[in-house]
Recover the amino acids of this structure.
C-alpha cells in the first residue's frame, strides 16, 4: 500500500491549488500596491523638491530686493543730509585758485611714427629709435579751481581760519583741508618770485593767471 500512499500525497488537492492561487494573487496585489505607493511617494517628493526650490528662489529674491531697498534708502538719506549741509554752508563757500602745470607739445611732424619716434640704422648696423624733435614739449601753467568752505572764528588779524572741502559724490559730509595755510594765500604785497609754486592759493582767477604768466615766462628763459 506504500505506492498508493505516495501517489496520494504527491497529488495536490483542489484546496492546495486555491491556496497557492490566493497567495500568488495576494503577492501580486501587494507588489502592485507597493509599486503604486513608491510611485506616489516619488512624485510627492519631487513636488516637495520643486516647492523647496521655488521657496529658496523667492527667499533669495526677497533678500536681494531688501538689500537693494536698504542701499537706496541709505543713498537717499546721505543725499538729503549732504544737500542740507551744502544749503546751510552756502554762505561760507569760496573759490580759490592754484597754479597747476601740464605738458604741451607742438603738432606732430611727418618724419616720425605715431609715438613720435624716429627709426634708423646705427653705425653698427643695428635698428634703433630716438625721440623726434617734435616730442620736445614745454611746461605750461594755468589756474586750477578749488571750491572750499571757509570758517573764521574771529575777523581780526589774529583770528583762526579753517577751510573744509566736500567729500566726493559717493560720500557724505565735509572734511578739513590741511593743504591751505592762511599765510600762503596771495595778497598784492607779495612778490611772485617769493611764492611757493605748489602751495600758494589765490582769491581770484585773474591773480592766479598773472602768476601763471610769470611762471610761463620763467620757463622760456
Amino acid at each position: 500500500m506504500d505506492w498508493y500512499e505516495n501517489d496520494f500525497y504527491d497529488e495536490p488537492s483542489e484546496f492546495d491549488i486555491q491556496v497557492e492561487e490566493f497567495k500568488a494573487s495576494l503577492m501580486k496585489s501587494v507588489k502592485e500596491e507597493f509599486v503604486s505607493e513608491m510611485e506616489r511617494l516619488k512624485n510627492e517628493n519631487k513636488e516637495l523638491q520643486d516647492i523647496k526650490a521655488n521657496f529658496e528662489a523667492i527667499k533669495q529674491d526677497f533678500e536681494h530686493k531688501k538689500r537693494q531697498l536698504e542701499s537706496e534708502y541709505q543713498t537717499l538719506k546721505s543725499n538729503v543730509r549732504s544737500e542740507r549741509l551744502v544749503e546751510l554752508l552756502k554762505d561760507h563757500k569760496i573759490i580759490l585758485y592754484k597754479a597747476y602745470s601740464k605738458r604741451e607739445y607742438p603738432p606732430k611732424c611727418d618724419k616720425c611714427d605715431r609715438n613720435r619716434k624716429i627709426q634708423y640704422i646705427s653705425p653698427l648696423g643695428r635698428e634703433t629709435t630716438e625721440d623726434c624733435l617734435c616730442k620736445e614739449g614745454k611746461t605750461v601753467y594755468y589756474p586750477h579751481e578749488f571750491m572750499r568752505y571757509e570758517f573764521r572764528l574771529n575777523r581780526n588779524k589774529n583770528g583762526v581760519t579753517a577751510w573744509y572741502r566736500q567729500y566726493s559724490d559717493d560720500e557724505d559730509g565735509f572734511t578739513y583741508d590741511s593743504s591751505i595755510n592762511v599765510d600762503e594765500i596771495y595778497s598784492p604785497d607779495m612778490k611772485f618770485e617769493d611764492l611757493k609754486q605748489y602751495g600758494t592759493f589765490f582769491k581770484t582767477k585773474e591773480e592766479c593767471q598773472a602768476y601763471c604768466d610769470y611762471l610761463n615766462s620763467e620757463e622760456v628763459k
Q: What stands out?
A: The CA atoms of residues 66 and 110 lie 61 Å apart. Confidence is low (pLDDT under 50) at residues 1-5. The helical segments are 2-10, 14-88, 205-220. Residues 14-88 form the longest helix (75 residues).
